[in-house]
Amino acid sequence: CSPGSNGWYLGRWPSCFCRTHVVLLPKGASGSPLDFRPISLTSALFRLWSAARLPYAVQVLTAAGVRPSLA
């Protein structure tokens, strides 16, 4: 995944940031489909980027009159 070669600077997300892997973890021993819990695994780079950009996003929303809730 190379952010520069995927249009990063043109406002497009690199494809590797858009992938999410869903893993089913067993909750019980029955093997029933209802006994599994889906867990989403996202890109660590995306999580890092979004954490770094959060203060800026809050500033922009506040300036626009929107009060973001960071619960």
Account of the protein in words:
The protein is an alpha+beta fold and 71 residues long. The protein is built from one helix and two strands, in the order ββα. A two-stranded antiparallel sheet has the order 1-2. The longest helix is centred in the C-terminal third of the chain and has 20 residues, at 44-63. The two termini are 32 Å apart. The model has no long low-confidence stretch (mean pLDDT 80).
Radius of gyration, taken over Cα atoms and rounded to an integer in Å: 18 Å
CA(first)-CA(last) distance? 32 Å
The low-confidence parts are: none
Number of helices: 1
Order of helices and strands: EEH
Mean pLDDT, rounded to whole units?
A: 80
Main pleated sheet: 2 strands, antiparallel
How many β-strands, per DSSP?
Answer: 2
Main structural class: alpha+beta
DSSP strand content: 15-25%
* Cross-sheet strand order for the largest sheet: 1-2
What's the shape? Answer: elongated
Please give the share of residues in helix: 25-40%
